[in-house]
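Render this sequence as a predicted structure.
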Amino acid sequence: MSMSSNRPLEGDPLAPHRGRLLGLAYRMLGSRSDAEDIVQDAYLRFAGAHDVHNPEAFLVTIVTRLCLDRLKSAKARREVYVGPWLPEPVCDAEGLSPDAATELADDLSFALLLALDRLSPMERAAFLLHDVFDTPFAEIAAMLDRSEASCRQLATRARRAVRDERPAPAATPDTHARLLMAFGEAVTSGNVARLAELLREDAVAITDGGGRKTAARNPIHGADKIARFFIGLAAKNPGHQLRVEPAVINGAVGALFYVDGELDHTLSMAIDGERIAAIYIVRNPDKLRHLLPASRH
């Protein structure tokens, strides 16, 4: 059975739970492809299990534990990762919905995912299960094999860290779109001063090439440095056919950039008020593969 699609399959026992399971795994790992692998493994374990009285609780427990195991190997891979790491961008955020009316239920922003990435795996699990997926602490304790009090402490520490890391509340789609368009126009015109005006003074730009594509090896801080970086990049690529396709990336207005007909990178932003607080560029082709039509994988 292929698990590469989030659309319910006929006779698929995971169909009622798929969005919740994929959403949990993606938030835990920051990788859509790894999340799909985890859900497939959970399906196989579910298919081989007997006397499962609560399928959803069983599946969430399996997915959580598989993610915790995967994070151990991910830590080793991250130590040799070239340059900054960003999550895999997704354009189908609605397919990763936890079906819970929590404050963070619809937040798949890079800002939140990067804040989650700085937590310990157990903190991440306790926080996501409770604050995003609205799971009672008694159930979380059983899933993590910890006491209920310990799980409350894990979630509290994580909540505090996430609040410190996340920027201001998300801007409206119209503000996102307007700033994205102004950003593109400033880069195209080579106007460093205009581009710097769009950015918060302490803005950051993070480019993830993973050693596969050219990217800044460290985050770029400050409006003027970021403006000069992007305008310098544009000047280095004359003669190439560039196509920009608007897209909703991780729930916010962003864009897919094609160079000579091939998807080159995604661009998304965090907005604070009327200025750009952060720019996220993913160029690593391994992280873009799932955005391509199936025939081109």
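Summary. Confidence is low (pLDDT under 50) at residues 1-10. The CA atoms of residues 56 and 189 lie 53 Å apart.
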